[in-house]
Amino acid sequence: MLRMRPLPPISQLNKALGSILKMGHYATALSLIQNKLQQFQGIQVNICTFCIAINCYCYLNGVDFGLSLLGTLFKRGYTPDVTTFTTLINGLILQDKTPQAVELFKKLMRTREIEPDVVMYGTIVNGLCRTGNTIRAVSLLRIMEEGSCKPNTVVYSTIIDSLCKDRMVDDALKLFSTMDEKGIFPNVVTYTSLIHGLCNFGQWKEATRMFKEMLDSGIAPDVHMYSVLLDGCTKEGKMKEAEGVLEVMIQRNVDPNVVTYNALMDGYCLQGQMDEAIRVFNTMVDRGLRSNVFSYNILINGYCKKMKIDEAVHLFRELPRRGLKPDNGTFSAILRGPFSITFLPRDYNLMLRHTTMIQGFCEEGLLREAKELFVKMEHNGCLPNDVTYNTIIRGFIGQHKCYEALILVEEMVQRGFSADASNSSLVIDILSTKGQDPALQEVIKKFMPKDGHRIQEIE
DNA sequence: ACTAGTGGAG
Which of A46, A140, A45, A127 is nearest to A86 (CA)? Predict the structure, then answer.
């Protein structure tokens, strides 16, 4: 007879779920929760399990699903704790709803429903930094310093990294130097952010000084740190040193990953040494690492710059065979290359090739390139037609470049073309939001097809 | 046990 095993303690389940989450398997964690609930009807799910589920929903289906679970939680008589709310705040930030996240945070502060802890503060700081509000994050840091919830290394690191990315490396250095006074110690993450920032601004000497300082304080570099250093070397054209970094990390049993090799490959591409870049690519694969779309983009970009079209096309075609999908970076590399129209399908005629390319440029926001090709296509013996005009005009309007659009509209009308359906509706959209701009009015009037009555309806 | 911060192409 089958004897029922004792119910696993809920803490055991939660612990297992924790390690599944660390690997990013949110769907697995969710189905595990559901299975356990069905398997053991009487199992007592606690607030942590709910929080894990909310977190999974936030990552898988969006924060709205997470919020709806909060309702269930209330209905069953549970009281959400600070972690639950932090999870939701993080969910909002993940979905680019940082203003709502800040609102929720403020509301919790106001109603004193929850006493925010350092993680909740850190989550808000992260949200502010990610949305270009680093200065507001610094203000929040000051508030924390004066209050009872003191900032920790994570909060400082988040802001230091953001300052570096906002090109305020000096301010990052200043903030860094105040950490010591407060007895908050930088870790490898703090140093990585700062050294990355210094490398990006060519302050190689200062970067190496910081690295030595870190080693002296007994902090061990990890794969992130070594990759940043290697990348810094290649940006300085120091390929020998970059290879040296790779050797050192292998020696010290820090395994390089695909990011490390990509950085090295990009360095060789920058030097125009495509043979070396390919050698690195092969070494990476030999070491059992999988190339990603970045690896391909780096090489395609390198070949395009060297006018090696066959090699670039070959790699481009290899992407799907490796189960990889070209992304914006791939198209960007191709579009900037001198042979970009060659990548397009064989049955595209010259006209279609140019128009497709122009559309690609517009979608990438590369209007200057779009205009260049637009001018060039006439020299290539290929007159733009109504589709070409509509494509490029849509591009300029999309980037709110009304005056450039106006010139093109006049040209188009002169040649006897008019706006297509998609552009007409686009114009109506703009009219409803920005109709008061006289310059835009001018564009719109010329742009619309002969039956201008739809404009009057709106006016 | 659950929640926040670090690296790479264009």
Answer: A127
In this prediction, residue A457 has a pLDDT band, given cuts at 50, 70 and 90, of very low
Q: How far apart are CA A168 and CA A181, in angstroms?
A: 21
Q: Does position A79 have pLDDT exceeding 80, yes or no? A: yes
pLDDT tens digits, one per residue of A204-254: 999 999 999 999 999 999 999 999 999 999 999 999 999 999 999 999 999
CATH T-level fold of A344-459: 1.25.40
Residues A416-435 pLDDT 10s: 888 777 666 666 665 555 55
**CA A275 to C1' B4, whole Å:** 43
Structure tokens at A317: 């075609």
Q: Which two tokens stand for residue A187?
A: 């870790």
A402 or A220, higher pLDDT: A220
Could you tell me the residue ranges of all domains in chain A? Answer: 1-95, 344-459
Average pLDDT over chain A, rounded to an integer = 84
Q: What is the pTM of this model?
A: 0.77
How far apart are the C-alpha atoms of A433 and A178, rounded to whole Å?
Answer: 47
Would you say the CATH fold of A344-459 matches that of A1-95? yes
Q: For residue A100, how many other CB atoms are within 10 A of its CB? A: 16
Nearest nucleotide over every DNA/RNA strand to the A231 CA, judged by C1': B8
A99 vs A63: CA distance, rounded Å: 14
Nucleotide nearest to A193 (CA to C1'): B6
Closest residue (CA to C1') to nucleotide B7 in the complex: A224
Domain A1-95 has CATH 1.10.3210: no
Instruction: Please name the nucleotide lying closest to A47, CA to C1'.
Output: B2
Got the DSSP string for A47-68?
A: HHHHHHHHHHHHHHT-HHHHHH
Separation in Å: B8 C1' and A75 CA: 46
Question: For strand B, which nucleotides have at least one atom less than 7 Å from a protein CB?
Answer: 1-10
